[in-house]
Design goal:
By secondary structure, the protein is α+β, with helices and mostly antiparallel strands. It has helices at residues 3-8, 18-25, 82-87, 108-117, 119-145, 148-163, 179-186, 190-202, 218-223, and strands at 29-33, 38-40, 48-54, 57-62, 68-74, 79-80, 94-97, 101-107, 165-166, 171-174, 206-209, 212-215.
């Protein structure tokens, strides 16, 4: 998979001409991160935009007691780090690889030059930011008022929306998160996640295999959000 082919499939770069794209490729760097490696910390200077080429990363914050809360999981073709890049402020969260991951990186000065010549890129990024903000607001609202069952159901459905594969049985989720990771995402304890997943399984809502969850009854799971 060439970087040119890859970038063509990312919405914010899809309208660049071949010549413009070739020039853009010349200012990109590429880096591979180990499983569990921190790509950047919260409050680090925001000097680069990252485009995930392969692997999986999590965006998280820690409270004053050191408890981690996962805000989002990023998949290939996702980009991150754009907020600090646009406003010049420090990073608002920590990003960590969940497996061996490769990212394309563009530095802030190159990025600013790019959007000055191609303002549609900035408009596309703002559209993505708006969708992410709406999704975050919706998630915060759901998780604030939901009980533990609703919180776990919300996370499973979020992962299904992002990366689930539909087949005749249902929606298959190849989980990259551990039970503790799911707990950090939902804001509940690991023991609570395990208990609720087992109850969802007993009710016929999901099927669990090693590293995999299949949603058998999506409607039943969505009722937990009410």
């Amino acid at each position: 998979m060439t970087n040119k082919w890859f970038l063509r499939r990312i919405q914010i770069f899809s309208k660049l001409s071949d010549k413009e794209l070739e020039k853009f490729l010349g200012i990109l760097s590429e880096k591979t991160y180990k499983d569990g490696e921190i790509i950047f910390h919260k409050d680090d200077p925001g000097s680069s935009l990252f485009i995930l080429k392969s692997g999986l990363v999590k965006i998280s914050i820690n409270d004053k007691k050191g408890n981690e809360y996962i805000l989002k999981i990023m998949y290939p073709f996702d980009f991150f780090g754009e907020m600090a890049l646009l406003d010049g402020q420090s990073r608002s969260a920590t990003v960590t690889s969940l497996e061996i991951s490769t990212a394309l990186i563009i530095k802030r000065e190159h990025f600013i030059s790019l959007i000055e010549k191609h303002p549609q890129i900035a408009l596309s990024i703002m559209a993505v930011l708006s969708r992410r903000l709406r999704k975050t607001d919706e998630k915060i609202g759901n998780l604030r008022f939901a009980d533990a069952y609703g919180k776990v159901a919300e996370i499973i459905l979020d992962i299904a929306d992002e990366s689930g594969i539909r087949n005749k049985s249902g929606i298959v989720l190849n989980l990259k998160l551990s039970r503790q990771g799911l707990a950090d995402f939902a804001g509940v304890s690991r023991e609570t996640v395990t208990r609720i997943l087992n109850e969802f399984k007993k009710s016929g809502c999901i099927k669990m295999e090693k590293g995999k969850i299949t949603i058998l009854n999506e409607a039943m799971l969505r009722r937990e959000l009410i």
